[in-house]
Amino acid sequence: MENIACTGISDDIIANQSDRKTQDMAKIFFIDVTNRDGVQTARLSLSKLQKTMINMYLNDFGVFQSEFGFPTTNHENNYLRANLELASMGVLRPIRLSGWIRATSEDVEKTFEMVPEIEYLNLSISTSEQMIQGKFKGRKSRVDVLEQMVEAVKLANRLGAKAVGVNAEDASRTEVDFLVDFAREAKAAGGDRFRYCDTLGYDDPFTIYETISKIANATSMPVEIHCHGDLGMAVANSIAGAKAAVDAGQDAYINTTLNGIGERAGNADLLSCVLALLKSRGFANKYKMGRPVKLNRAYKLAKYASLAFGVPIPLNQPGVGENAFAHSSGIHADGVLKDPENYELYNFEELGRGEPELVETGRLICSGEYTGISGFSHIMGKMEVSFANASEARKILELVRYANVEAQTPLTEDELHFIAKYPEITRRLLTLTPPS
């Protein structure tokens, strides 16, 4: 009897310790870089309204931070400041909006001159010997790289940044000892996170785990993982890198893009990384997310990114591709009809799929750059949007026309709702003033 009683107490203690360990465990966050890295994809672009809508969708989905653009670029200025105004209004909350700049004092100074409201920054500089010799052409040494980065981080903090991430470009081709020095110097200067950039997709899940483990353990610093898909391993590498940071007791921040869009072969896809964390054998119920994700928003988010970029979602895209839940072979069809879990790891309804999609095959009235008041009133009326008077309707119509000029595609219902609700913000998003 005594042994049984002792065993029961021991089990309770072990359970409580396990609960505390889970509560104290480092977390995994998502930083989506579609509006910074995704838009650098050759032959693709987004309008400023589309970038804003992506920020709105990312916030709703549960992304911790959107790297929303380039604060030293003139044509981004109105867009960046308009989105920061949305944040101050509570519309874009709790998502953080961070800018990407080079790790130079000049870029830091220009950032706060052009976008004084900005609070979060990521400063980037190349660290590999290949880049030092091949990109800088020997004009910089490793000592110069460290000194330049430290100076920029300190200046960003002095000028009012609330958090500064420090990026090592081409980290996967950089010696790990130098990366440790780089991260330590960044931390000492006031950097909040170290971003490990697998810029060319050179890593594999085993090498990135080993490297991130060394860096996180040696620096006690949160780590961002930024992976590209040149060898098809961006998602696997991102998950392995995040695991390494968390296993070392440090928060991990996975960089993603919508539908994996990005330079060359793309970046780590947001939904694929989320599904890996929530559903895979080694991660499900074992690792903590930094912010709850609304998985049922996934399909809408992927569809909007596809429309905005003009790039179809691949048939076999995890979760959102047309074939993600399609079955034709006899054995699979029979098995999934008996029990979907026979051949599906997760349900399509979890991702916000399953509702019929209506395609108009008859008369269609849509918005365009030459839309008139009658057609516009018809469109908005179907969306149950009304205006105080004809003057207000015409003002919104004019904004819709300009938005169509910039996007060169009919606007979505969400975009039209946004314009009607935030006309002054929209006016700023549509205003591009080239420097004289």
What does this structure look like?
Helices cover 46% and strands 11% of the residues. By secondary structure, the chain is of the alpha/beta class. It folds into two domains: 17-293, TIM Barrel (Alpha-Beta Barrel); 373-429. Strand 6, helix 8 and strand 7 form a beta-alpha-beta unit. The chain is globular, with a radius of gyration of 24 Å.
Short description:
The chain is of the alpha/beta class. 46% of the residues lie in helices and 11% in strands. It has helices at 2-24, 48-61, 77-88, 105-114, 129-134, 142-158, 176-189, 205-219, 234-247, 270-279, 298-309, 330-338, 373-382, 390-407, 413-421, 423-429, and strands at 27-32, 65-69, 96-102, 120-126, 163-169, 193-198, 223-227, 252-256, 288-289.
Mean pLDDT: 92
- For the record, give the distance between the C-alpha atoms at the N and C termini, rounded to a whole number: 88 Å
CATH class of the largest domain: Alpha Beta
Given the C-alpha coordinates, what overall shape results?
A: globular
| Unreliable residue runs | 1-11, 13-22
